Amino acid sequence: MIALLLYRTVADHLAPWAMTFATLMLARSLNMPEPLVHSTGDYVVARVIAFEHGVGKSLCPFRLARQLRAWWRCLH
After folding, report:
1. Which of 26, 51, 74, 75 has its CA 20 to 30 A from that of 67?
2. Category of 45 on φ-ψ map: left (φ > 0), alpha (ψ -120 to 50) or beta
C-alpha cells in the first residue's frame, strides 16, 4: 500500500515536473523558445508515426511470411 502511494506520488507530481524541466533545458541548449520545442517535437512524432504506418505495413512479419509462402508455391 505504501509503495503504491509512493509510485502514485511520483507519477502525479514528479514526472510532469521532470518533463517540463527537460523541455526547458532542451530549449535553452538549442537556444529556441519553449513553444517552438513543443511544436517541433509534435511535428517529429507525427512524421515518425506516418513513416512507421507506411513502412510498417509492408514489413509486417505475418505479411512477409504470407508473401514468402506464396512465392515458394509459385516456384514449385
Report:
1. 51
2. alpha
Residues 19 and 37 in one domain: no
Q: What is the DSSP string of 25-45?
A: HHHHHHT--HHHHHHHHHHHH
Cell of 37: 520545442
Number of structural domains found in the chain: 2
- H/E segment holding residue 22: helix 15-30
List, for residues 15-71, the tens digit of each pLDDT value. 888 888 998 998 999 898 988 888 888 888 888 888 878 777 777 788 888 888 888
Asked whether residue 24 falls in the same domain as residue 42, the answer is: no
Q: What is the pTM of this model?
A: 0.51
